[in-house]
Amino acid sequence: MAGKSGSVPAFRLLPNRAKELTFIRACLQKWNDDGIAWSDMAVIYCNHQLGDALMRELNQNDIPNIWMGDKNIRRNYDPTENKVLLVTRQSSKGLEFPRVIVAGLGCLKDDEEAKPEEARLLYVAMTRAQEYLLLTSSVNNHYTQRLSEVNLT
């Protein structure tokens, strides 16, 4: 469960990065249409390239967002602004949101040396969700295979 009283997390494996970005945008839009404030949503990602792609997708579709990919923006972050937060796994520590999407699980390293750190950061990201957690990927790896095995669809 997400948070203390949330629903069972969901996992979606999409056929490519473009479809993953479109799916994430559509989920955010639906949640907002259902009455969830933009500021109650966060998308947590694994690398700068994905954060930039998410920001572009949301901007092109008029979804208000703040991308924490710049130190000046991080310093001036105002959580009261009604915007979706785009943040790395590392920078998400200490934050909580009713709705969280952990995007790009396919870019997590799954070699034996990297697994402990990747798992730790994934745990940090997943535990930011208070009510609902959605995990997405467009690439298969150790993590997506494990999530598929537990049927989080």
What does the model show?
- This protein is an alpha/beta fold.
- Helix content is 36%, strand content 21%.
- The protein has a six-stranded parallel β-sheet with strand order 1-6-5-2-4-3, sandwiched between helices.
- Helix 1 crosses helix 2 (48-60).
- The longest helix has 17 residues, at 17-33.
- The protein is globular and about 40 Å long.
User: What overall geometry do the principal axes of the alpha carbons give?
Assistant: globular
Strand share of the residues? 15-25%
The stretches of 5 or more residues where confidence is low (pLDDT under 50) are none
For the biggest β-sheet, the strand order reads 1-6-5-2-4-3
Counted beta strands? 6
Helix/strand-derived category reads alpha/beta
Gyration radius (Cα, Å) is 14 Å
Q: What is the average of the pLDDT values?
A: 91
What's the quick description here?
With 153 residues, the protein is of the alpha/beta class.
Tell me the layout of helices and strands.
Elements: E1 10-13, H1 17-33, E2 41-45, H2 48-60, E3 65-67, H3 71-75, E4 84-88, E5 97-102, H4 115-126, E6 129-137, H5 142-149
List keywords for this structure.
153 residues; alpha/beta; six-stranded parallel β-sheet; 6 strands; globular
